[in-house]
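Reopening this one. Same input as before:
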Amino acid sequence: MPPARRRGGNTASARSNQPVLSFGAKSRVTKPSAAPSTPSEKTKALESLDSDISDKDVSKYLSDSKSVEPGQPHVAELAVRSQAKAEIEQPLSEEDKKAAKITKKQLQQYWNTEESKDRGPKVHQEGLSLDEKILRHFDLSSQYGPCIGIARLKRWRRANSLKLNPPVEVLSVLLKQEGTAGQRAYIDELMS
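Same output, byte for byte:
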C-alpha cells in the first residue's frame, strides 16, 4: 500500500530527505581508465603499433584471404566431411543393421507421425524430399545436442551413446545417402 500523502503545509520540508539529481556539467561522473589520457600519448601508441605491422604482412594477409574461391568448400565444410567420412568407415553396429532394414514406407509413416505432432503443414518444406525433411527435423531437435560444427551421423551416434534415443529413421536416411553429401546440417550451412 502506498504511503499516505501529507496535505497542506510546506511541500519543501516534505521532500527534504530526498537528494536532487542534477544533469549539469558540474555533476559529470567519469570512470578512470588505463589508456593514455593526453592526445600526444595516444598518437605515440598508435604510431608504435603501425610501425610493428609491415606492408608485407598486410599484403600477405590480403593475398591469403583472396585465395579462397567461392566455389571451394569452407573450412567448416571440410571438417564436417572428414568427420562424416570417419563415421561411415566404422564397422556396422546393431543400430546400423536395424536402420538398413527400414523401408521407404516406414520412413513415410515416421514423418507423418512427426508432422502430425506439429500444429500445421510446413509450407517452407514443400519442395524438399522426404529424406531432407527428416534430416532437417533432426537438425532442429535440440534434445540431441548442437548441430553446428558436427556431422549429422556423428551427432546421431553421440546422442545414441548418451542414451538420448535418437530416431533410427534418421540413421537410416544418413546411411542410405551416397558419400558425404548431406552430412552437414542445413542450419550449419546457413550460419557459416
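So the earlier flakiness isn't reproducible anymore. For the record, DSSP finds ten helices and no strands in the chain.
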